Amino acid sequence: MPYSFLLWVDEAGRGSWAGPVVAGACALRTGMKYDFSPLLDDSKKLSPKKRREIFRMLQDSMEQGLCFGGVGIIGPEIIDQVGIREANRLAMQEALKQVFARIGDNFGLIRIDGRDNYRFENIEQGKIKYIVRGDTFVPEIQAASILAKVSRDTLMEELAKTYPDYGFEKHKGYGTHLHEELLGIHRPSPIHRKSYAPIKKLILEGE
Question: What is the CATH number of the domain that holds 124?
């Protein structure tokens, strides 16, 4: 009997200087045509407005039981403790766990963007395929990417209200010129990744 779902996984925030790393997992029914499918593209090429539009369409499909999604969030404290690679694995594992709670083992191959070759609890390694730069050309991975990115962008916009001096709502924690400039004025916040070289340097300079 063929599996009903294929699973797709991607992350957002790996290279950010602040905030969490977020993974998105999408379980899409095999052979189903989704309203959002023609709109999918590399999330980095889509405007924020278009990403949120697709995100809402994804949510609508999830609410109707047409597909299932999970979002794993690992904060900066854990990133500093275990490193970004392991934190990314933990985020993906949590996102997958949420999906498994809805679909059980009724899935085929799990396709993950990247080349990390992670090992996950209770998942056979042979059921995982890694696709380098999959978010640039695999539509279903693009759906998982949008789920992760919009979820993380929303979190960073909320964190900007708690930490208004850093412009998180504009750069989402990435190392832009504006972020670097504001860090020089206000010093690192509690949600900055202290293990990252630019942040570590500022902390050492302030001691």
Answer: 3.30.420.10
Q: What is the pLDDT of residues 124-168, one digit of tens each?
A: 888 999 999 888 888 889 999 999 999 999 999 999 999 999 999
Q: How far apart are the first and last CA of the chain?
A: 63
* Rounded Cα gap, residues 207 and 205, in angstroms: 6
Which is it for the CA torsion 129, 132, 138, 141, positive or negative?
Answer: positive
Q: Is residue 195 included in any domain, yes or no?
A: no
Q: What distance in Å separates the CA atoms of residue 189 and residue 63, rounded to the nearest whole number?
A: 37
Structural domain harbouring 35: 5-161
Q: How many domains does the chain have?
A: 1
In a domain, 128, yes or no: yes
State the burial class of residue 80 (Cβ atoms within 10 Å of its Cβ: 0-12, 13-18, 19+): middle
- Alpha-carbon 102 to chain mean position: 20
